[in-house]
Specification:
This protein has a six-stranded mixed β-sheet, sandwiched between helices. Strands 10, 13, 14, 15 and 18 form a five-stranded antiparallel β-sheet that branches. The model has no long low-confidence stretch (mean pLDDT 96). The chain has 414 residues and is of the alpha+beta class. It folds into two domains: 269 residues, Aminopeptidase (3-Layer(aba) Sandwich), CATH 3.40.630.10; 117 residues, Alpha-Beta Plaits (2-Layer Sandwich), CATH 3.30.70.360. A hairpin with an 8-residue loop joins strand 4 and strand 5. The protein has ten helices and 22 strands.
Length: 414
């Protein structure tokens, strides 16, 4: 006879009580993860730590795959149909954080957060959630709750650079029954996000000495009317009723040879595009090329090329692959069973009404959703702290998310 957390107060109480007992263990694990530097492509030390911790926590199966993802499972007999909890190990550079790997426990009032917080790079994005997933798995193991399907945690590599680790998992033959992305949602349920694309525009000119610019063709000047028209084009991009409006903006510029007294023969501008499901990549490139074509029709001397940027990525294991610098948009309908289950479990366990929301940033969830796998998000922390010098995770949020992860796994995997 199956027992549902949302229908069995005794089972729910057991899970909540166990997570409270493991509160100190959860906080210390989160601190260990935060104290371990793991820049994109340099996650090896953290992967070894997570592997060891999963074994110590009693996970049934623990391994590191070819690309460097750490995979740990509890219960079940097969990964087919499992509930996959996905969190990334890599983080952006510390930037102007004064002591980025301190994992200091401090009063959250400095960040307008109630209670104690753990401060450090990747606390909110997203080592706090990874720790909560791991402790949730160990709690179910200790409680002896039977799981017919596996609860699997994937600590993945290279998420911050368009998701090599999750792409690898999504392309494997094993098909989970659902995917939970642990990025920060402030304990609400995320249904998706706009996509992210990196597109480059390059103009060509002819170099000469800057003292006689009339002898050359300035590639930088040729870029100006293109940028002006890109700005105008951005005002009329498609919108999605939930994810919002697509956006397109210039963010980087480089010239060659980049010398003060030489007219540049090349100028390249990088565009950051955030696209909705009704604005697919092929349409994005078509719109940008259309802008360039219109500008060139007005000035035959302007010649420009448009390309989707490629990334050459290499994992700490040596696995290498060229990928498109893009993350697809993600949108899961709110009536999807996994979305409804997550919200009901969160409401039951946390004794509050959660909301459906969308992320402003892109996540690895889209790689799984594109394969037809139900995908939603739930995590501790607030988006505003990600990639910022205020990167922190609230202790109460951390514990709350672990309770929900454990209860959701018990509900889904029975």
């Amino acid at each position: 006879m199956t027992r549902r957390v949302t229908e069995d107060p005794t089972l729910e109480s057991k899970i909540v009580d166990k997570m409270e007992q493991k509160r100190g263990e959860l906080v210390e694990l989160a601190r260990k993860l935060i104290q371990t530097e793991s820049l994109s492509g340099q996650e090896g030390k953290l992967a070894t730590l997570i592997l060891s911790e999963m074994k110590n926590l009693g996970f049934d199966i623990v391994r590191i795959d070819e690309v460097g993802n750490v995979l740990g499972s509890v219960g079940g007999t097969t990964d087919e149909g499992a509930l996959l909890f996905n969190g990334h190990m890599d983080h952006v550079p510390p930037g102007d954080m004064s002591d980025p790997y301190s994992a200091e426990i401090m009063n959250g009032s400095a960040f307008d957060v109630s209670g104690q917080v753990i401060l450090g790079r990747a606390a909110s994005d997203m080592k706090g959630a990874l720790a909560a997933m791991m402790i949730a798995g160990s709690a179910l193991r200790e409680l002896g709750i039977p799981l017919r399907r596996r609860m699997t945690i994937a600590a993945v590599v290279l998420e911050e650079v368009n998701g090599l680790g999750s792409r690898y998992l999504a392309e494997s033959e094993v098909r989970p029954g659902g995917v939970m992305i642990g990025e920060s949602t402030n304990l609400d349920v995320a249904l998706g996000h706009r996509g992210s694309m990196a597109v480059s525009i390059t103009t060509e000119g002819r170099s000469c000495h800057a003292s006689a610019p009339e002898r050359g063709v300035n590639a930088l000047y040729k870029m100006i009317p293109i940028l002006q028209n890109i700005s105008l084009e951005a005002g009329g991009l498609p919108s999605h009723p939930v994810l919002g409006k697509s956006s397109m903006t210039a963010t980087t510029i480089s010239v060659s040879p980049n010398v003060k007294n030489v007219i540049p023969n090349l100028c390249t501008v990088g565009l950051d595009v955030r696209n909705t499901p009704n604005f697919p990549p092929e349409e994005v490139l078509k719109r940008i090329r259309g802008v360039v074509d219109r500008v060139e029709a007005q000035d035959s001397k302007i010649g420009a090329s448009v390309e989707l940027v490629k990334r050459d990525l290499k994992s700490y294991t040596g696995y290498a692959r060229e990928i498109d610098a893009m993350t697809p948009p993600l949108y899961t309908e709110p009536d999807t069973p996994l979305a409804q289950m997550t919200r009901k479990v969160a409401d039951t366990v946390l004794r509050k009404k959660s909301q459906f929301k969308v992320w402003s940033f892109a996540t690895d969830g889209s790689y799984f959703a594109d394969k037809g796998i139900p995908t939603v998000g739930f995590g501790p922390g607030e988006e505003r702290f990600a990639h910022s010098p205020m990167d922190n995770i609230g202790v109460e949020d951390l514990v709350a998310s672990a309770k929900v992860y454990a209860a959701l796994a018990a509900e889904f995997c029975q």
